[in-house]
Design a protein that fits this description.
flat; single chain; mainly alpha; 15 helices; MetI-like fold; 355 residues
Amino acid sequence: MNTSALLQQQRERKLRERTKTVWKALAVDIFLGCYVIILIHRMLWYSVVWDTAPPAFSVVWYVFYGGVGVALGLTMNMLHASPGRKIFGLIEQESPTWKHAAALHSLWIIGLLTVITGWILTKISLVDLFAKQGMDGAGRIFTALFTPEFSIFGDVVFATIETIYLALMATLVALPASFVLSFFCARNIVRSHKGLRILYAILRFVANLTRSIEPLIWAIVFSVWVGIGPFAGMLALSVHTIASLVKQYSEQIEDIEVGTVEAIETTGAAPLQVVWYAVVPQIILPFLSITIYRWDINVRMATVIGLVGGGGIGTLLVQYQGLARWHEVGLIVLVVAAVVWVMDYLTAKIRDAIR
């Protein structure tokens, strides 16, 4: 192939990449246009100007927001002064033109509107925060928390040990599935086979969906399924751990050095041999570090899922909290804080040792 043909292919490839980038920028601009009109109309107008609740969503409102948002996005994009073009680098950083300034100021305005809307929706009130009645109540609770009741120390220690083992078993149960599935969720492993690419898309979707559901919700599901107790908590943590580890493991696989892989492939090795001899040796230490850190996270999560019947120290905590026995709650909080500190210290030392 001659030089002119190669140059033509490069120009066509760059044109295709730029066209894709332009479409991505347009999609961002339309999304931001819809976002801004909703913020201005539903949040700021009705909350600040009228001080009333906005009307319920209906087809008319969807059409209105969509139409205005698309018009805003298209207008800014066609003027080449849009946030989308700024984000995707279609406007040069050093450009002194009004397009650069307009895109930059648009991003600042959107950020400011977001902060204002967040302030309104969360109903932030410094008056309520520093009200005397509220501060007196908080003072009574903190006083009780820092004067713990040690008569239940034995029960707290047993529940804490149960929590630690709950987190440990959830991590161990999740390891085999996470290790195997992570290879099918790594783009550099599956890209050469169409069937594996389809499996990759399915597994990534399932993992993202599973990870988006908090362990607290999984604990409620399994408490109904297998009954209240540490088994339900262990299952809840296992499901969430598998989804999280698959993501972290697969990203680590995607970051491996390709030189070793190519060297093994040139020997005529089978795909499984390539993975075992070229990929696995590069990921063992990072996988161990990630797994230890995940156990640390699971110990903290185990405390929370106990609040909904997942067993461990969380179950004991919610019992005394429901009875407003703050001295007992104070002891539990101190023990949990000590365990978390010790776990954090030990896992950090282990991770340093295996690096």
